[in-house]
């Protein structure tokens, strides 16, 4: 039986208390008043700040070409909404999830990426679940995103977490420079957590 939404009830987040929580027997999360979270001894989840834009843009160039897909101002506007998180090892960002508020109960997962050398280590899944849980705690109930129809690993992750495809959009990534024109086409997906 397919679930209509991902069950986040077992994933703690509370701004007032410290938690030591074992997620999938691999990750320990700690929460304190500074929005500092630990995955293991070397990595942590933190709120994305404007100081992180250059690292985020660098990672996005690995997937979207030399200029990245979004401009500095677009990234700045999303980051200022305080719904975006990143995973750092020491001071290096290895993955991030940027969310953009659309209205009181709805947001868009604007950009999710992990450095190529850290793919298949569940960092993308971890930061996505964490970000959705954080947004859910402030009343967000609907999460939307767009994904290239050729990005099979991302689509697999989204479907695993309960996202549903709602429509196909031809040439969504029209400014993307690629050898495969299908890379420009996208699916719009959503997750409802109520």
What characteristics describe this protein?
single chain, 194 residues, alpha+beta, Aminopeptidase, two-stranded antiparallel sheet, 4 helices, 10 strands, 22% helix, globular
Low-confidence stretches: 1-38
SS-based class:
alpha+beta
Largest pleated sheet: 8 strands, mixed
Mean pLDDT across all amino acids:
77
Strand content: 25-35%
Provide the spatial order of strands within the biggest beta sheet: 3-4-5-6-7-8-10-9
Total strands = 10
CATH class: Alpha Beta
Rounded to an integer in angstroms, the radius of gyration calculated over CA atoms is 16 Å
Shape: globular
Q: What sequence of helices (H) and strands (E) makes up the elements? A: EEEEHHEEEHEHEE
Reported by name, the CATH topology is: Aminopeptidase
- Give the helix level as a range of percent: 10-25%
User: Span between N and C termini?
Assistant: 18 Å
Question: Given the structure, what is the number of helices?
Answer: 4
Number of domains: 1
